[in-house]
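Lab notebook, bench 4. The sequencing result for the construct came back, and we need a structural model before the next group meeting so we can plan mutations. Quick request posted to the team channel:

Model the 3D structure of this chain.
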Amino acid sequence: MQFGALQLRTLKKQLTNQQVSNDNTQGGAIMAKADKKETVEVEHTPEQKNFHSHIQSLTRKISQHQFEIDELMPSLNMYKQALAESMKSQVDDIPEENTNDNN
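Done. Here's the predicted structure in token form:
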């Protein structure tokens, strides 16, 4: 069932202070329960379904990339530490020069 903008505003006012949840099993419909009253189903528009798909896709991608970042960070830190130690030993090998400018 599709609602116009005015009907959705009216429905929104009716649902104020009531439980509203997103039910993914109903094709992205919004299920609203009015404290032991009837359940109202509002279908998403194609645009809203598209937004929902993007949100799910981006959330999945961020989660996957975060997992990969968590795996990669120890290796990155190891290489940073190895470079720092290598540079420190290189600096330690440089003979100290006289800093006096009196030639």
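Residues 17-26 have pLDDT under 50 and may be disordered.
Will bring this to the meeting.
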